[in-house]
Specification:
This protein has 215 residues and is mainly α. It is 18% helix and 2% strand. It contains three helices and two strands. Strand 1 and strand 2 form a beta hairpin.
Length: 215
Protein backbone atom coordinates (compact mmCIF):
# COMPACT_ATOMS: atom_id res chain seq x y z
CA UNK A 1 0.00 0.00 0.00
CA UNK A 2 1.53 3.36 -1.00
CA UNK A 3 1.85 6.30 1.37
CA UNK A 4 -1.10 8.26 -0.10
CA UNK A 5 -3.53 5.37 0.34
CA UNK A 6 -2.39 4.75 3.93
CA UNK A 7 -2.95 8.44 4.73
CA UNK A 8 -6.48 8.35 3.29
CA UNK A 9 -7.44 5.28 5.35
CA UNK A 10 -6.05 6.89 8.51
CA UNK A 11 -8.04 10.09 7.86
CA UNK A 12 -11.31 8.10 7.39
CA UNK A 13 -10.74 6.24 10.63
CA UNK A 14 -10.40 9.49 12.51
CA UNK A 15 -13.26 11.47 10.89
CA UNK A 16 -16.08 8.85 10.81
CA UNK A 17 -16.39 8.27 14.61
CA UNK A 18 -16.41 12.02 15.18
CA UNK A 19 -19.21 12.48 12.65
CA UNK A 20 -21.31 9.77 14.27
CA UNK A 21 -20.84 11.32 17.69
CA UNK A 22 -22.22 14.61 16.35
CA UNK A 23 -24.97 15.33 13.85
CA UNK A 24 -24.77 11.86 12.31
CA UNK A 25 -25.61 10.20 15.62
CA UNK A 26 -28.47 12.64 16.12
CA UNK A 27 -29.91 11.66 12.74
CA UNK A 28 -29.74 7.97 13.60
CA UNK A 29 -31.40 8.55 16.97
CA UNK A 30 -34.16 10.55 15.34
CA UNK A 31 -34.93 7.68 12.97
CA UNK A 32 -34.97 5.00 15.66
CA UNK A 33 -36.89 6.84 18.40
CA UNK A 34 -40.60 7.84 18.03
CA UNK A 35 -41.22 11.55 17.81
CA UNK A 36 -43.39 13.43 20.31
CA UNK A 37 -46.15 13.65 17.69
CA UNK A 38 -46.19 9.93 16.95
CA UNK A 39 -46.19 9.14 20.68
CA UNK A 40 -49.25 11.33 21.19
CA UNK A 41 -50.97 9.58 18.31
CA UNK A 42 -50.31 6.21 19.91
CA UNK A 43 -51.55 7.35 23.32
CA UNK A 44 -54.60 9.36 22.29
CA UNK A 45 -55.50 7.84 18.95
CA UNK A 46 -57.92 5.19 20.24
CA UNK A 47 -61.67 5.22 19.68
CA UNK A 48 -63.79 7.15 22.16
CA UNK A 49 -65.31 4.70 24.64
CA UNK A 50 -69.03 4.19 24.44
CA UNK A 51 -70.78 6.06 27.28
CA UNK A 52 -73.06 4.20 29.67
CA UNK A 53 -74.56 7.34 31.20
CA UNK A 54 -74.96 10.91 29.93
CA UNK A 55 -76.29 13.84 31.97
CA UNK A 56 -77.54 11.45 34.64
CA UNK A 57 -79.42 9.27 32.17
CA UNK A 58 -78.35 5.63 31.86
CA UNK A 59 -78.19 4.48 28.25
CA UNK A 60 -80.01 1.17 28.59
CA UNK A 61 -83.05 -0.44 26.95
CA UNK A 62 -86.31 1.43 27.69
CA UNK A 63 -84.40 4.40 29.10
CA UNK A 64 -86.39 7.62 29.40
CA UNK A 65 -84.02 10.31 28.11
CA UNK A 66 -85.94 12.93 26.10
CA UNK A 67 -83.98 15.90 24.71
CA UNK A 68 -80.66 14.27 25.61
CA UNK A 69 -77.56 15.73 23.94
CA UNK A 70 -75.72 12.85 22.27
CA UNK A 71 -74.01 14.75 19.48
CA UNK A 72 -70.89 13.10 18.02
CA UNK A 73 -71.10 10.27 20.55
CA UNK A 74 -69.80 6.78 19.95
CA UNK A 75 -72.97 4.69 20.34
CA UNK A 76 -71.96 1.82 18.12
CA UNK A 77 -73.64 -1.50 19.02
CA UNK A 78 -75.57 0.16 21.87
CA UNK A 79 -78.88 -1.36 22.99
CA UNK A 80 -81.53 1.34 23.32
CA UNK A 81 -84.49 -0.81 22.38
CA UNK A 82 -87.76 0.83 23.45
CA UNK A 83 -85.95 3.92 24.77
CA UNK A 84 -87.65 7.33 24.93
CA UNK A 85 -85.33 9.67 23.01
CA UNK A 86 -87.88 12.21 21.86
CA UNK A 87 -86.20 15.43 20.76
CA UNK A 88 -82.71 14.04 21.43
CA UNK A 89 -79.78 15.55 19.56
CA UNK A 90 -77.91 12.73 17.83
CA UNK A 91 -76.25 14.81 15.15
CA UNK A 92 -73.23 12.93 13.72
CA UNK A 93 -73.56 10.20 16.35
CA UNK A 94 -72.10 6.79 15.52
CA UNK A 95 -75.08 4.43 15.75
CA UNK A 96 -73.76 1.64 13.58
CA UNK A 97 -75.45 -1.67 14.41
CA UNK A 98 -77.31 -0.02 17.32
CA UNK A 99 -80.54 -1.57 18.57
CA UNK A 100 -83.27 1.07 18.31
CA UNK A 101 -86.22 -1.28 17.89
CA UNK A 102 -89.43 0.34 19.17
CA UNK A 103 -87.44 3.41 20.27
CA UNK A 104 -89.24 6.76 20.35
CA UNK A 105 -87.19 9.25 18.35
CA UNK A 106 -89.96 11.63 17.39
CA UNK A 107 -88.59 15.09 16.67
CA UNK A 108 -85.00 13.93 17.22
CA UNK A 109 -82.08 15.43 15.32
CA UNK A 110 -80.04 12.81 13.45
CA UNK A 111 -78.37 14.93 10.79
CA UNK A 112 -75.33 13.10 9.37
CA UNK A 113 -75.74 10.32 11.95
CA UNK A 114 -74.24 6.95 11.02
CA UNK A 115 -76.99 4.34 11.26
CA UNK A 116 -75.52 1.71 8.98
CA UNK A 117 -76.90 -1.77 9.78
CA UNK A 118 -78.87 -0.30 12.72
CA UNK A 119 -82.06 -1.99 13.90
CA UNK A 120 -85.01 0.41 13.64
CA UNK A 121 -87.93 -1.97 13.41
CA UNK A 122 -91.13 -0.21 14.54
CA UNK A 123 -89.12 2.82 15.69
CA UNK A 124 -91.01 6.12 15.93
CA UNK A 125 -89.21 8.77 13.88
CA UNK A 126 -92.10 11.07 13.07
CA UNK A 127 -90.89 14.60 12.43
CA UNK A 128 -87.24 13.65 13.00
CA UNK A 129 -84.50 15.48 11.11
CA UNK A 130 -82.19 13.04 9.35
CA UNK A 131 -80.57 15.14 6.66
CA UNK A 132 -77.51 13.43 5.24
CA UNK A 133 -77.88 10.49 7.63
CA UNK A 134 -76.47 7.13 6.59
CA UNK A 135 -78.99 4.29 6.90
CA UNK A 136 -77.34 1.86 4.52
CA UNK A 137 -78.51 -1.71 5.14
CA UNK A 138 -80.49 -0.62 8.20
CA UNK A 139 -83.49 -2.69 9.25
CA UNK A 140 -86.54 -0.45 9.56
CA UNK A 141 -89.58 -2.64 8.86
CA UNK A 142 -92.71 -0.98 10.19
CA UNK A 143 -90.86 2.17 11.24
CA UNK A 144 -92.74 5.47 11.42
CA UNK A 145 -90.99 8.07 9.21
CA UNK A 146 -93.99 10.36 8.81
CA UNK A 147 -92.90 13.89 7.87
CA UNK A 148 -89.27 12.95 8.55
CA UNK A 149 -86.65 15.06 6.76
CA UNK A 150 -84.40 12.58 4.94
CA UNK A 151 -82.95 15.08 2.48
CA UNK A 152 -79.76 13.70 0.87
CA UNK A 153 -79.79 10.73 3.23
CA UNK A 154 -78.39 7.38 2.15
CA UNK A 155 -80.91 4.56 2.45
CA UNK A 156 -79.11 2.22 0.11
CA UNK A 157 -80.21 -1.40 0.58
CA UNK A 158 -82.37 -0.46 3.59
CA UNK A 159 -85.07 -2.96 4.50
CA UNK A 160 -88.10 -0.83 5.32
CA UNK A 161 -91.10 -2.83 4.20
CA UNK A 162 -94.40 -1.65 5.69
CA UNK A 163 -92.75 1.58 6.88
CA UNK A 164 -94.82 4.76 6.96
CA UNK A 165 -93.14 7.53 4.94
CA UNK A 166 -96.21 9.74 4.61
CA UNK A 167 -95.08 13.29 3.89
CA UNK A 168 -91.39 12.37 4.25
CA UNK A 169 -88.82 14.48 2.41
CA UNK A 170 -86.54 12.15 0.42
CA UNK A 171 -85.26 14.79 -1.97
CA UNK A 172 -81.79 13.89 -3.25
CA UNK A 173 -81.72 10.70 -1.13
CA UNK A 174 -80.11 7.44 -2.22
CA UNK A 175 -82.67 4.62 -2.32
CA UNK A 176 -80.73 2.26 -4.54
CA UNK A 177 -81.59 -1.38 -3.79
CA UNK A 178 -83.92 -0.25 -0.98
CA UNK A 179 -86.64 -2.71 0.02
CA UNK A 180 -89.80 -0.59 0.34
CA UNK A 181 -92.57 -3.10 -0.29
CA UNK A 182 -95.97 -2.10 1.11
CA UNK A 183 -94.70 1.26 2.36
CA UNK A 184 -96.82 4.39 2.54
CA UNK A 185 -95.25 7.16 0.44
CA UNK A 186 -98.37 9.32 0.24
CA UNK A 187 -97.47 12.99 0.04
CA UNK A 188 -93.74 12.23 0.12
CA UNK A 189 -91.13 14.14 -1.92
CA UNK A 190 -88.73 12.03 -4.00
CA UNK A 191 -87.40 14.52 -6.51
CA UNK A 192 -83.80 13.80 -7.50
CA UNK A 193 -83.87 10.51 -5.57
CA UNK A 194 -81.79 7.55 -6.76
CA UNK A 195 -84.03 4.48 -7.01
CA UNK A 196 -82.02 2.02 -9.11
CA UNK A 197 -83.03 -1.56 -8.24
CA UNK A 198 -85.29 -0.33 -5.41
CA UNK A 199 -88.43 -2.37 -4.68
CA UNK A 200 -91.77 -0.53 -4.33
CA UNK A 201 -94.15 -3.47 -4.61
CA UNK A 202 -97.51 -2.60 -3.06
CA UNK A 203 -96.37 0.91 -2.02
CA UNK A 204 -98.92 3.73 -1.75
CA UNK A 205 -97.86 6.83 -3.70
CA UNK A 206 -100.86 9.15 -3.61
CA UNK A 207 -99.87 12.80 -4.12
CA UNK A 208 -96.19 11.88 -4.00
CA UNK A 209 -93.82 14.22 -5.88
CA UNK A 210 -91.28 12.27 -7.89
CA UNK A 211 -92.44 8.80 -6.84
CA UNK A 212 -92.05 6.09 -9.51
CA UNK A 213 -95.79 5.62 -9.97
CA UNK A 214 -95.08 3.52 -13.09
CA UNK A 215 -92.76 1.16 -11.22
Amino acid sequence: MNASLRALCLLSALVLPAALSGTGALALATESEPSETSTEALVGGGEEPRPTEVAGCKLVPKAVCPNLDLRHRNLRNIDLGGADLRGANLMRADLRHANLRNADLRGAILDAADLRTAFLQNAKLEGARMRGANLEQARASGADFRHTDLTAASLEAIKADKADLTGANLEGADLQEAKLANTNLSGAVMEGTKIRFAIFQGALMDNCRGCPTDW
